[in-house]
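Appendix B. One record, verbatim.
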Amino acid sequence: MDWRGHEIIVSVIRKLREHGSWAGKTHIIKTLYLLSATKRMKHIPFDFTLYKHGPYTFDVEDALAIMKSYGAIEEDDIMPGFYGERLKPGVNANFPQNFAKLTKEEQQEEQEAIEEICKLTGKKNVRELECLATAVWIFDQEKESNTDKIAKRVHELKPHISKQQAKQAYNEIKHFLHS
């Protein structure tokens, strides 16, 4: 069992909710991808691929199912199914932390990184997250750093996202990528 991954997911869910997020699967996955791509955390134990709506990982889908089974997370009963699953920490939310084996300094660094990215992603809708994460994918995976070229490539991959939207999204996060 990947306790580190589970601990990170619980922390992301908590912080997303603190920042006004729906905290559904898309929000969690895109936030985890941004944490990984911005190198804000030393190790995110999930593999991402560019998928229909931007970077995606099947690993998190599996982790969420396992975490529900032992009560680390649960579905919020507020409007179930209305916008898809809304997740919240469960009765055993602290359980993964007991096995993750991080020092206090490592925990503090991770919480700061999660706070920074969740502050950015928390209020975004699914379409904005798709745009933001895809722009970062172009930067990270295709090694492109020119804003106009990133915007053009995002639009090529996702014609429903305008070049202007892609440019704005990249400009919003690029300080995390170049620091």
